[in-house]
Amino acid sequence: MVAQIKDRADALWWPLALTLILVGYFSPWLSHSTNGLTQIGLDLSEWVKFMPQMQSGELPNRDMFYIPPITLGAALALLSVGQTGWRPWILRGLGLFVALLALPSVDAIRFEGSDQWLPRVLMIAFVGAVALMSVWIGRFPRWVSWGSLILVGGVGLFVPTYLFSVIYRVAEEWLVVDFQVGLGIWLNGLGHAAVIGLAVLSAVGRSR
To answer: The whole model's pTM is what?
Structure first.
């Protein structure tokens, strides 16, 4: 039974889980009837930097909104472990490509302080390091890669969700409007939760 779930996970559930994360990042997180106030996950970090509370340092680091493409990229790289042929290199390259969604603009690097863009560069470098290490992680027990996927899924689930819960309240007070929780934050949570669950099922299946 567990083996059958594992086979289906490789063929269907893993791509579905990762797609939910990607689609969620390009979907509204903060939703409002006025289009100009609706913010997708990709744009949310740039939008919240104008909040007085963010500029004064009262709120958590806004770069945490860039975590979904980072965890998605790391998950793709980790899924390459144990595979042979050309497929693992496609997964690693795709993972690094997705992580580049967090890449700061040239203007940000030129005109803003390093604290506004350096964390994102380091997160992208982390995905690159995971992609390189995935070549050797296969030499370790398989639970190392599954455990890493569980950790990645947990970070992608809880960290952006926590920051969103803080920003949501502050945004309503700042603009004196009522926002709705957008579809994107739900898709992000569901996708990362699926990554955790699938990694657990895969680890159990491998151990039997």
So the answer is: 0.90
